[in-house]
Specification:
The structure is a homodimer. Helices cover about 40% and strands about 10% of the residues of chain A. Chain A is of the alpha/beta class and about 230 residues long. At the A-B interface, helix 2, helix 3, helix 4, strand 2 and helix 6 of A face helix 2, helix 3, helix 4, strand 2 and helix 6 of B.
């Protein structure tokens, strides 16, 4: 078969099979044709082949202090050591940048989750295992994100830690402030948390050791065929 | 040295040196400690080491029809074949999702570029070579994106095709509509395009063959030490 990208083989490259490019319809066109090149996109399938794992959105949800970010980062560490491409979206890298214009009103929190969902979708297309760690208290918002991607591309992981444990820990002192009325609309205190009823996984982050919770998530990924279990 | 992640070595993993984790301050703490784990983040440096190339933002700017998206995808194709991790942000994957709530008013176009800049930054942190293909006509907007990342992380590439060539091609028929007044604030016709005066690269996408333009961008990446020239 003629190498469509011959122009570049003068440099030392590993030539990967160009899945996603229809060779039959392209090979008779000039390499300089914009139309041809514009369609020679690197597809998600080619990225996944390159990465040797599938991409997925792991959506962690739960109360403030439930251990979402901790678990997401621990899972990421494990996946990185497996050789996977990963990224964690959480308050640290989203709240001051992409969503820096948003406050905490109901409308703004909704828009916050909508944007995070759409960014997750971009990472998904980029072949990355993206892990999101946001309270995301409402069914409707989580469902909206689930609906913008293909079935199976969104795995909801419920960090099922009781409000008692979260409040007892109160790592950031937020529950105390919320009880005193210093924070309005605080999830679990003055604003509802709608626990998932169809999460792909429920982990007891408040009661079980972290490594056990990490194993549960990794096992889910293996069951779903995201990770190459041969590696 | 004690392997900090011993708990996981029972599974078959390649252990990468955990750059970014301070072993001296962490090794005396329990593996289950949330505080420890939360700080055991996968850093950009570790991702770059894994990918065997550095991450960067390649910001393509130019008139409608100048060949930004075509060039960005052609460069991505080349980089993918080199074994790099890449992603192109353009109207196709951003306008209907992340920025689906935005119109074409001056304010909305500004917000559009701001969001794209921030998403680019996330991909940058994720170790990816991110290529953006948006007209981005204003100095101030491009400068704002440049300023949210470290010096050297943002390379501006001016797709320097004259308005005459763009209008002559008129692939999407937009110039004709703009001339008839059917599209308001159309860049180059009824709204200004502020050509970059400090772009890292200017490519004559309208006059030179695409492969030559691709080479120019690849050479820039080699000069800047983004690609491992040994590979």
């Amino acid at each position: 078969m003629v190498n469509y990208y011959n122009a570049y083989t003068r440099t030392s490259i590993k030539f990967n099979q160009t899945k996603g490019v229809s060779m039959s319809s392209e090979q008779d066109k000039s390499i300089s044709s914009n139309a041809v090149w514009h369609h020679a996109t690197v597809t998600r399938a080619r990225r996944e082949e390159q990465n040797k794992h599938k991409s997925i959105i792991l959506w962690f949800t739960g109360l403030s202090g439930a251990g979402k970010s901790t678990l997401a980062h621990a899972v990421e560490e494990q996946l990185h050591q497996f050789g996977c491409r990963t990224y964690v979206l959480d308050g640290d890298n989203v709240r001051h940048g992409l969503c820096g214009d948003l406050g905490f009103s109901e409308e703004d929190r909704k828009e916050n989750i909508r944007r995070i969902g759409n960014v997750s979708k971009l990472f998904l297309e980029a072949g990355v295992i993206v892990l999101t760690a946001f309270i995301s208290p409402f069914h409707s918002d989580r469902k909206q994100v689930r609906n913008i991607v293909q079935h199976g591309d969104f795995l909801e992981i419920y960090c099922n830690t009781s409000i008692d444990i979260c409040e007892q820990r109160d790592v950031k002192g937020l529950y105390e402030k919320a009880r005193k009325g210093l924070i309005k609309d605080f999830t679990g205190i003055s604003s509802p948390y709608e626990a998932p009823d169809n999460a792909e996984l429920s982990v007891h982050t408040g009661e079980r050791p972290l490594e056990e919770c990490v194993d549960q998530v990794i096992n889910l990924l293996k069951e779903r065929g995201i990770l190459n279990t041969q590696s």
